[in-house]
Design a protein that fits this description.
This protein has 3 domains: 53 residues, 3-methyladenine DNA Glycosylase II, Chain A, domain 3, CATH 1.10.15; 248 residues, Dihydropteroate synthase-like (TIM Barrel); 127 residues, Rossmann fold (3-Layer(aba) Sandwich). The chain is α/β, with parallel strands linked by helices. It is globular and about 80 Å long. It has 16 helices and 17 strands. The longest helix is centred in the middle third of the chain and has 17 residues. The strands form 5 sheets. Strands 10-9-8-7-6-3-12-11 form an 8-stranded parallel sheet. The chain has a 3-stranded mixed sheet with strand order 13-15-14, with helices on both faces. The N and C termini lie far apart (75 Å). Helix 1 crosses helix 2, helix 4 runs parallel beside helix 5 and helix 6 packs parallel to helix 7.
Length: 452
């Protein structure tokens, strides 16, 4: 169980040396109890106390990583049931399943297509995280050949799925130099699977039909020397998955039940009568750490990637772009100057519409702490003073031969104040929605250009 601040204080040296950056040892202990400080900040804690404190302060869900050629997928270290309570930290990895019966060329074709898939979402590059190679053939040599074919086509992390320790051992040899997730140990083979995982220094997935059996297996495997464990609760339906994965998360977080304090792997295509994409979306929200998709389809993968990005964005830190002056379609000194906030979705909505219209323009992005236009205005983060400051600090005035600024229509109320802050400037009120910008520029700026 987690220790209280007073219990932690009793294990500290109690010298109040302040070298940890806190005024007293008690203050430091309270921060440790709240998981807002690291024990390593105290240079004088004894080894015995450190052992006790390390065990008590360990995250309720262990952080497990798979890696290959510098690319890494991490799952675990989550501390809340709901994102709004704090945030979710490690996005679940999306892996594409590859069966060894496809043959080397078929594997390379499938993997290359999925590996090269990359989309830009509000300035963030999104794509698949890795590949799950499955020994459907049951043949060790064929499995090893399949792992080699995947590695030849991609440098992304691997999950190795094999029915027996003997076949798994061949796949692990072929994956030498990487850190794959081995899937999976069960009641019949966990000893040999644990030996393979320990020798390869690789995490091991464990599967069982009940949480009691799953917890018992993780305890035995941990005693065998394997610390990095992933849970496969064999729950495949919508209701079963939601219930089981939520129960595991609650036991780990609320009851500090260490035997189930590990990330979860999910196979949304394994359930009968379920839609893989729908169930994968559920797993992203509740509460998988690794998700294995049976097929690669950009039409279904893209919404999953966007959903994951949105859920795993810190609600206290909106996605934002760097404030500054941006060029769209090679603007000239005669091109319009527009202003918006540095909320990523707002920025890219405006940028995409202007870029798509082919109209050259300057886009002034003011620092609004990552808030959208209306939200920033309501919070006092997007006002006349900030906009005027952005105009001056970015040197926008020196880039154009006119003094006209297009203000978002949603904050037209700022136009009067802005004309006072920017003496001699004409403030034009633009459309409320980004989709209307191309027509606005054609009508309003075209008239302005024609009048000169």
């Amino acid at each position: 169980m987690a220790l209280t601040g007073l219990q932690i204080y009793k294990l500290l040296p109690q010298t109040n040396c302040k070298e940890c950056g806190h005024p007293t040892c008690l203050a430091f202990a309270m921060k440790l109890a709240a998981k807002q400080a690291e024990l390593a900040l105290c240079p004088y804690v004894t080894e015995s106390a450190k052992a006790q404190l390390d065990a008590a302060s360990a995250p309720p869900i262990r952080l497990v990583a798979v890696s290959c050629n510098g690319s890494k997928v991490e799952a675990g270290n989550e501390t809340v049931l709901f994102r709004h309570e704090k945030t979710f930290y490690h996005k679940p990895g999306l892996f594409i399943r590859v069966e060894d019966t496809l043959g080397a060329e078929g594997i390379k074709t499938k993997v290359s297509e999925a590996d090269s898939y990359l989309v830009d979402y509000v300035g963030i590059k999104l794509g698949v995280d890795g590949f799950a190679v499955e020994a459907v053939s049951g043949d060790g040599a064929k499995f090893a050949e399949a792992v080699g074919a995947v590695r030849a086509a991609s440098k992304k992390p691997l999950i190795l799925i094999a029915p027996t320790p003997e076949v798994m051992a061949e796949g692990v040899k072929a994956a030498s130099g990487t850190q794959p997730l081995l899937c999976a140990a069960d009641e019949s083979n966990w000893q040999k699977m644990a030996e393979i995982a320990k020798s390869a220094k690789a995490p091991l997935a464990v599967k069982a039909e009940s949480l009691d059996k799953l917890a018992g297996l993780t305890e035995e495997i941990k005693k065998a020397g394997v610390e990095d464990i992933v849970l496969d609760p064999l729950a495949y339906g919508y209701g079963d998955s939601l219930k089981t994965l939520t129960q595991i998360r609650r036991l780990a977080l609320k009851k500090n039940f260490r035997a189930l304090g590990y990330p979860i792997i999910a196979f949304p295509s394994n359930g009968a009568g379920v839609d893989e994409t729908v169930l994968a979306a559920q797993h992203i929200a509740k509460y998988a750490g690794f998700i294995v998709l049976n097929t690669f389809d950009p039409a279904t993968l893209y919404p999953l990637l966007v959903l994951r990005q949105n859920i795993y964005t810190d609600p206290q830190k909106p996605i934002q772009v760097q404030p500054g002056l941006y060029e769209i379609n090679s603007p000239t000194a005669d091109s319009p100057l527009m202003v918006t906030t540095n909320f990523s979705i707002t920025y890219f909505a405006v940028n995409n519409e202007v870029e798509g219209s082919g109209w050259p323009a300057w886009l002034l992005v003011a620092d609004a702490e990552g808030m959208s236009v209306l939200t920033a205005w309501a919070a006092g983060k997007f006002d006349a003073d900030r906009i005027a400051k952005a105009v001056k600090s970015t040197g926008a005035e020196g880039k154009i031969n006119h003094k006209r600024l297009i203000l978002p229509g949603q904050v037209a109320v700022l136009s009067g104040e802005l004309e006072e802050s920017l003496a001699g400037w004409e403030i034009m009120v633009g459309p409320k929605e980004a989709v209307d910008i191309p027509n606005y520029l054609k009508v309003m700026w075209g008239e302005k250009a024609g009048s000169r």
